[in-house]
């Protein structure tokens, strides 16, 4: 039995990223969660062969979009009681934290991950969250 209710704010892991969201539907073993903020940006590369660059398909992974809905197993959902976060600012912070982490060590994986992260970051800045480096919501 879950101690969560519809409308509760939760933190969820999803495909190597971590997000803040709102429970909008109970689906038996899963919750449908609406994404509201990004805590940790998803890893770049092949999740089945982490930190490898040779003989793997190196994926560019974007963070979940604002208000994107995802099904998440109930046993990985935790309550979120922190401050309300702005999606655009949280995304920017998550990208910066991941980039800083990758820059600390010069490896082939980190170089390729930084390239991939820069590519997905361009789509964020040219999308609805940032324009010319200035944040705005729509």
Automatic annotation (TrEMBL):
Record InterPro entries: KapB (IPR014916), KapB_sf (IPR038080)
Pfam families recorded: KapB (PF08810)
Superkingdom of origin organism: Bacteria
Coiled coil residues, start to end: none
Molecular functions (GO terms): kinase activity
SMART domains cross-referenced by the UniProt entry: KapB (SM01298)
The name this protein goes by in its record: Kinase
Keywords: Kinase, Transferase
